[in-house]
Amino acid sequence: MSSFAARVRDQLRPGDLFCRLGGEEFVAIWPGLSEEQAMAVAERLRKIVAQPGEEKGAEPAVCITVSIGIASQKEGPFNLDELLSRADQALYLAKHNGRNRVERYSAEQASPSIGQSCGA
């Protein structure tokens, strides 16, 4: 876990937020990025995290993969619950589509059955 946290921390800008929601779920908030920029950052982060690393006492090297869901809010008052819900739907789409990938929220793709089919 410390190797994962260090890799993520190295990719953050001042003002970015990265925190653990619970278990193996984390949230990153990247203020001021467009959706395309957030997708690029998430993809770079996914690749960096997937590089083999050495955890103390681990043999052989530990390989970590991540599935990332992206959501953005373009207008209107900020609604954290709605943003997290959309990111969660995109995350389940990433898992549904094979894991270790980045997906963005799209109202057209949003479906209650996606979360159910992934064991949510």
TrEMBL record:
Keyword Transferase (UniProt): yes
Catalysed reactions listed for this entry: 2 GTP = 3',3'-c-di-GMP + 2 diphosphate
InterPro entries per the UniProt record, alphabetical: Diguanylate_Cyclase, GGDEF_dom, Nucleotide_cyclase, Rev_trsase/Diguanyl_cyclase
The keyword Transferase appears for this protein: yes
A single MF term (Gene Ontology): diguanylate cyclase activity
Keyword tags: Nucleotidyltransferase, Transferase
Enzyme Commission number(s) of this protein: 2.7.7.65
Residue ranges of domain GGDEF in the record: 1-107
Protein name: diguanylate cyclase
